[in-house]
Amino acid sequence: MTIQCISPAERTPALLEHLTALWEQSVRETHHFLSEPEILAIKPCVPQAMTGIETLLVLKEHDALLGFMGLNGKKLEMLFLHPKFRGKGYGRQLIAYGMAHYGVDEVTVNEQNPQAVGFYEQMGFSAYKRTAQDEQGGPYPLLYMKRTTEI
Fold first, then answer.
1. Which of 141, 136, 96, 139 shows the shortest CA–CA distance to 127?
2. pLDDT of 88 strictly over 90
3. Which of 48, 71, 111, 134 is the most buried (most CB within 10 A)?
């Protein structure tokens, strides 16, 4: 397994399409609070988000993409794993890599995704702020979390 940083020049349409498909599979597995129309409405924004992120890291095993993570400074903006690789320690490896190499110490997570909230708590993050809506004004409460303990 390797973690590779993808430079802006390497973020080709083909790679972004592949990562968007992985994003969709992951969201369908974990974001049960989103309806089908909501997923389809968000999907076209995903490649743009990956293009605009400061640091894009992909998790690979041989040629297979298992997941990816996006960072802006020390803030984790996105982390998605292919559903068949969830629960096997890959998310933990990505976060640990981000902490060690980029100083990741903050994340915002949908409160309605309790598995993600629990995962980040296990990784040493604690909520310090809650909003009733997401950053686009949708009815999705967010938890803002900071790393408070070492893993």
1. 141
2. no
3. 71
